[in-house]
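Hi everyone, sorry if this is the wrong subforum. Our group has a chain we'd like a structural model of before ordering constructs, and none of us has done structure prediction before. Sequence below.
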Amino acid sequence: MNPSSPTSPSLTQHERFLVGKCRDAIRDGIVLAQWCRRGHGDRREFALDLRERFVLPNHADGYFGSITLNGADTSVMGCRQHVEFARVDPRLDARPILEDFVLGEFLDRAHWTNADGTPGGFGVERSLYETMDGKHGRFEDDDRAGAIQWRDLGSRFRWVLLTIKLNDFVVQMGPITRRMNEAVCVIPLREFMRVVENPSPEYAFEVSIGYPFIDYAPIPNFFGFGPGKFGVAVKLFSFYLTHDHRIRVLIEFAAAPRAQKVFDFHGLDPVYGPADLLKRVSLGWIDSQPLHDMMDTGMLVQHCHVHQKLMDGTWRIWKQWLGQY
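Answer:
Right subforum, don't worry. Here is the predicted structure as tokens:
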């Protein structure tokens, strides 16, 4: 991975626009990630029913809450997903192995071909970066494929902008199931990385990474809340090693504010728009909040489906990669 040289052409207007989006996402994403790791404070939690059968044992919970961002209170919606990922041979020194995988291999290898021949996991491409002295640049065209080495954050780079194609973003609308062509732009940061010995009595070791999302959809879509349509959002991946050599993964997604739209057809939402209008004209007699809660919960289930398919595929990649030891 070689950053473009100082003599590279200056950034385009669109690239400068993305740098501005990165600054906003970093500022607010760090606050939201800290809120997640503190345990959220006052929030309403509920179990999520993923309905599908997956390879790895898992369970997921959703929540609605609130957070103060830039001096203003705003709503939050999110999900936490616990996955029984793998067991490590007790004869191996699992700590450095797990650290190397999460910080250097996880996102870079998180792609495969599904049983039905469709691409699975994440397709990752890097584009822009900021160096530790605040200079911005772009990766050359032949050096864009793949993720990053997390150890480069805080040393070579302040941040790197990644475009992640969500290969397993599948939407079910009644009897219709459709695989969508969707992608997000995210910013790995040193502030989202943790390597901790004995983080709790339950665990012997923790390796965590994560990133904020920028408010930009690299592939235009009609969703009002979805890829590239979050005000502030973060994703956290925490890999924990237990004292009996098991690996558990906690994945958390949080977004603020809660969904304002389900769909966005030239500014119009045929779901929340009429429901909220009906609430106003009925002077609150007809409450639209149950519909919001139901639809927002469905959106969180969709996130968890993508998370779990990612972990099921990564489990196979992990087993292959672990064979070198």
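For your construct planning: The chain has one domain: 13-322. Confidence is low (pLDDT under 50) at residues 4-8.
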